[in-house]
Amino acid sequence: MDNFYVSPTEFASISGVSRQTLIFYEKKGIFLPAYKNEKGYRFYLMSQLDIIATIQSLQKIGLSLEEIKDYIEHRNAQSTYELFSNKINTLKEIITTYHKMINMMETKCQLITKANQILTDMVYIEYRDEIKIIKSDYIPFNSKEINQYKILGEHIKYRKKQNHSLGHAISGMVEWKKC
Question: Rounded to an integer, what distance in angstroms lies between the CA atom of residue 72 and that of residue 140?
Answer without folding.
Answer: 61
